[in-house]
Amino acid sequence: MAEQVTRGRLREADIESLERATLQAVAPEAVEMFPGWLLPMDGGTVGRAHSAVPLSHVQPEPDALNAIVKRYEVRGFSPVFRLPDVAAFQTMHRALQRQGFTRRQPTLTQTARVDDLLAMPAGLPGELAAAPDAAWLAMYLGEGLDPVDGASRARSLARAAGTLFASWRENGQTLACGAASFGHGWLGVHGMRTAAAHRGRGLAGRLLRTMAEEAQRRGVDRVFLQVDAGNAPALSLYRRLGFVTAWPYAYWRRTQPPGG
Any idea of the CA torsion for 133, 135, 137, 141, to the nearest 10 degrees? Predict the structure, then answer.
């Protein structure tokens, strides 16, 4: 697939640190190393926790695909790849198609400066907690989220080291939530949800500013998130807050036998 966007001026070292921060936040059950790759393995539903991901966007070695597939199969996992939609990976994309893999779930990795979030008007801060309470989970697992998938995602976030859970509450009700990870020089934003009746009030922006204030306190000056490429409302919000697309990616899953 041809490169769709210009990366947000990230160096290869920045790509590696961001991908390591991503896995820290989703806390896979196990992570194996392969030259230039991380191979997370997990029995849950979180795609990032069980898909092989490259640590740079240079063209991968020709034998990487088969070697990685074998690593997953030996451990009893179905191989899944999370690959950038950039020109250097076109050859691997074609090789995956020949082996029965299909591209799914186009997603955007977006980045911003913490200062961009701090430029939002200051107001009452959201709450940050070291663990998700029942109200946070009720908001996160609420309407529109498959209960099995949601429970798996909540477990993944909860077991990640150092993640903080943000809530916006009014009159005893949790109206918005999110999670903030801190690692490898990045603030990671995950699990943003707002109750349908309260969307458009800027609650997500308030939580993002609260996360940014904590990042500033820790000396972290960059922020990333991953957002479904078709989520127009979220993309509009993040654009207003200064996020730019660093690169698009998609998941490659085997849907038919090799050569089928």
Answer: 180
CB of 246 closer than 8 Å to CB of 107: no
- The CA–CA distances, whole Å, from 71 to 34, 53, 78, 89, 98 equal 9, 13, 10, 20, 19
Neighbours of 4 (CB within 10 A): 15
Q: Which of 7-16, 93-102, 141-150 has the lowest mean pLDDT?
A: 141-150
Neighbouring C-beta atoms of residue 44, cutoff 10 Å: 18
Joined together, the tokens standing for residue 91 give 């050859």
Alpha carbon separation from 113 to 14, 176, 204, 227 (Å, rounded) = 13, 23, 17, 17
Which positions ≥6 away from 90 have C-beta within 8 Å?
1, 2
Strand partners, 228: 107
For 56, the 3-state DSSP assignment is coil
Residue 6 has pLDDT above 50, yes or no: no
User: pTM value?
Assistant: 0.91
What domains appear along the chain, each with residue ranges and CATH number?
12-107+249-254 (no CATH), 113-246 (3.40.630.30)
Maximal C-alpha separation, the chain: 59
pLDDT (0 to 100) of residue 7: 40
Per-residue pLDDT of 153-168, as tens digits, reads 777 777 888 899 999 9
pLDDT per position as a tens digit, 105-149: 999 999 999 999 999 888 888 999 999 998 998 888 887 667 777
